[in-house]
Amino acid sequence: MHSKFVIVLFSIQLWCIAVGGKAFGQSPGSDTLRMTLKETEAQFLKNNLDLIVQHYSIDQAQAQIITARLFNNPDFSFANVLYNPQTKKFFDTSHDGGEYSAQLSQLFQTAGKRNKSIQLAQIGVQQAQYQLFDLLRTLRFTLRSDFYKIYFQEQSAKVYQEEINSLAKTLSVFQEQYTKGNIAQKEVLRIQSQLYSLQSELNDLMDGIDDTQSELKLMIRANPQSFVVPVVDINLEGKSVVSEVPYQHLVDSAYANRYDLKVARSVVDYNNINLKLQKANAVPDLTFSLAYDKQGSYVRDYSSAGIAFSLPFFNRNQGGIKQARIAVDASKVQLQSQQDQLESDIANDYKGALRLENLYNSFDPKFKQDFNHLIQEVFKNYQKHNISLLEFLDFYESYKTNTLQLNNLQLNRISSLEQLNFATGTPFFNQ
Q: Between 381 and which of 107, 115, 292, 386 could a Cys-Cys bridge form, CB atoms 3.0 to 4.6 Å apart?
């Protein structure tokens, strides 16, 4: 009787492992989106709202150039007598008793203030464009990382689901046999304990997948009720993609293509031009005017031309110039700090990626296939009573652990390549 029980149990476990992966999937009624990485990026570029908002920032910066190019409007003033006590008329405009005057004036900026303001506005447009590309770099890194993370975590979830399905069926059979007195209670409790542990681990893993799914769907503006199934076609088996790229090439590419670094450089340029503008502000602007007065001056029909400007005796914009100089020095230090951080990040990411590449390539390519074959042999030995149930479960736990570690290693390796792409601002890898 015990032999038949083992055969039935063995058959159930084989069936559960064969179909367990099919039980894992999206929630009922949700839409499944099978997407390659290129399709995901295309939808991201088309729909992402953060990118759309940043495009508006560029338009706003371009409008500042229009404003900077405009000349000051001329000023016009007109005055008329309110009440003439001699003629006893309001708003008297008669030839003999009327009085009115008019003045037209125009402000002219000196020392190239207008041109310097235009240059500042143009740099503002450059900064907005650089910020757009840097935002694109950051969001694309998040998108690609989430894409690969979902894929490999779903592979790990399938391993959990296979073992859970198998143990759930086994537990049902064990409980039935325990009620008949064929097995001890400790074997039932052992199965229950491992089943509950696996379910808890799978639940934590699914929470992480749901969070990543939510972030990815928000970036591409997919239906929140949908379920993204990444279609991954990448093979890094035995390839040394990191070591083939010279380290200095990565650094040079980062200096040429990192838009956050370009923003920092443009800040230095902006502050240098602003310093020139503040010095120019110490030079007084000129106001030219034309005036006419009918009979309020020493002669009738008085007309005049004039010029006005402030005398820079006290205020020569000393504070503005000092602030601008400090801003120049601070921006240079900030640029150097950003360059140091860039080189440090690339060095650290390069070492990590190279270490993961060497570790992954040190694995025997046949290891996974041989390990899967080995578990089949364990089933056969379990069927022949050569190993106990606990030994079988321990081996299957080892199989699960190694499979999860291999998935994590593949994910970490691909993520390290994405990190290098992010650090250099160049798509060297995983294209």
A: 386
Contact 110, 116 (CB under 8 A): no
CA distance 232 to 413: 14
Are 37 and 144 in contact by the 8 Å Cβ rule? The answer is: yes
Q: Extract the tokens encoding 75.
A: 């000023």
C-alpha dist (Å) from residue 332 to 42, 244, 258, 270: 37, 34, 17, 11
Query: pTM for this structure?
Result: 0.84
pLDDT tens per residue across span 220-268: 999 999 999 999 988 888 788 999 999 999 999 999 999 999 999 999 9
Helix (H, G, I), strand (E, B) or coil at 317: coil
User: CA of 2: how far to CAs of 7, 380, 386, in Å?
Assistant: 9, 16, 14
| Amino acid in the structure at residue 21 | G
Task: Give the residue ranges of DSSP H helices in 292-388.
Answer: 318-361, 367-383
Instruction: Report the distance separating Cα 285 and Cα 191, nearest Å.
Output: 89
323 CA to centre of own chain? 33
Q: Which of 107, 68, 113 is nearest to 277 (CA)?
A: 113
Q: How would DSSP label each residue in 359-428?
A: HHHTS-TTHHHHHHHHHHHHHHHHHTTSS-HHHHHHHHHHHHHHHHHHHHHHHHHHHHHHHHHHHHTS--
Cα distance between residue 422 and residue 258, in whole Å: 9
3-class secondary-structure state, position 221: coil
Distance separating the N- and C-terminal Cα atoms of the chain: 59
Q: Specify burial of residue 270 (Cβ count, 10 A radius: 0-12, 13-18, 19+).
A: buried
Structure tokens at 85: 């006590």
CA dist 125 and 89 (Å) reads: 59
CB 420 within 8 A of CB 353: yes
**Cα angle vertex 341, ends 336, 344, to 5°?**
125
